[in-house]
Specification:
With 314 residues, the protein is mostly beta strands. The protein has one domain. The chain is built from two helices and 17 strands. The protein has a 15-stranded antiparallel beta sheet that branches. Strands 1-9 form a two-stranded antiparallel sheet. A hairpin with a 2-residue loop joins strand 6 and strand 7. The longest helix has 14 residues. It is elongated and about 60 Å long.
Length: 314
């Protein structure tokens, strides 16, 4: 936890010196508040694979769909998601729960994300059986610090749609990812139970936005990375190597006020967790969203201008 906290604080300090940049390639909405409503499917899955026998044990969350509500203004983007029982796909999930919370901020060309996933209720699946285990819980907190090299490229146009990409353009985007996960897998049939895990990965990335007829956009990109995993299992601590892969595909419609689209995002973190076991920690995400931009109150705009001038925020 100490290393993660230090890295997070260092990145935030550095980003205070970011300088806002503008171009004809994209349009920002500094005087508008953006709201978006989404139907989303997401989960944090875990898979144990035996390197010798190649047998695997999967831990799959019960929850399937949830509602996401996002609010965006200037450099801050906040997203909250909850899986309600009234959705038809969630009615057979018993006491399962899923809560997500995401924040993305921009400081010039720096981008910082914070992600929280809280899950209860899993299926355990092996080659021989599939069983529901209601008491399995996981809590994950972490994020990514990235630098967008090309100031003409808009990541906001493929994230929460807080900007409008006007021309096709791409950018090299290296990142540092770090996640802490706490496990509560108190079940006698599960061996090699993990208690805590901290993952850190550094790697390059590249994303490209294709703009069609000004209003339509398709974006694709990926980030790779290598790092380490520090985990505690059965009272013993281990340090192993880590590989990361993030893939994102987005398509949508944008205008001055209304926008809509679909996002697909997959993140895989894999590492050796014991002598003969490999743990795959994956986060999958699919959403369909609609949104609208409203004029922000004058007081909000004036206060945001004051904060931007003081700290160099975009």
């Amino acid at each position: 936890m100490g290393l993660r906290t230090i890295l997070f604080c260092c990145v935030l300090c550095i980003t205070q010196y970011g300088i806002a940049q503008h171009s004809a390639y994209k349009e920002a909405f500094p005087d508008k508040i953006t709201f978006r409503l989404a139907l989303q499917t997401t989960s944090n899955n875990f898979t144990l694979r035996d390197k010798i026998t190649r047998n695997k044990t999967e831990f799959i969350p019960n929850d399937k769909s949830y509602l996401g509500l996002s609010a965006l203004f200037r450099f801050l983007e906040i997203d909250f998601g909850y899986a309600p029982n009234f959705l038809s796909e969630n009615k057979d999930n018993g006491d399962s729960k899923l809560i997500t919370f995401n924040i993305r901020t921009f400081f010039g060309q720096y981008m910082q994300t914070l992600d929280i996933y809280k899950q209860k209720g899993f299926f355990i699946r092996t080659q021989d059986l599939t069983l529901p285990i209601d008491d399995l819980k996981t809590f994950k907190i972490g994020g990514t610090s990235s630098y967008i090299f090309n100031p003409d490229f808009s990541f906001r146009a493929i994230g929460f749609q807080n900007e409008w990409q006007k021309e096709s353009v791409g950018s090299f985007i290296p990142s540092i990812s770090y996640y802490y996960t706490k496990f509560k897998l108190e079940d006698p049939i599960i061996e090699n139970q993990l208690e805590h895990s901290f993952k850190l990965a550094v790697g390059p990335g590249y994303y490209y936005n294709w703009v069609f007829d000004e209003n339509y956009l398709v974006s694709a990109g990926a980030t790779g990375g290598l790092g380490f995993n520090l985990s505690k299992s059965q009272g013993e601590t281990s340090l192993t190597g880590l590989a990361q892969l993030i893939f994102r595909l987005t398509g949508g419609y944008n205008s001055e006020t209304f926008f809509s689209g679909v996002n697909i995002n997959t993140q895989l973190l894999t590492h050796t967790s014991a002598d003969n076991l490999i743990l795959d920690d994956s986060i999958s995400f699919l959403e369909f969203y609609v949104g609208y931009r409203f004029e922000a109150p004058k007081k909000w705009v004036n206060k945001a201008d004051e904060i931007s001038r003081k700290f160099g925020l975009d």
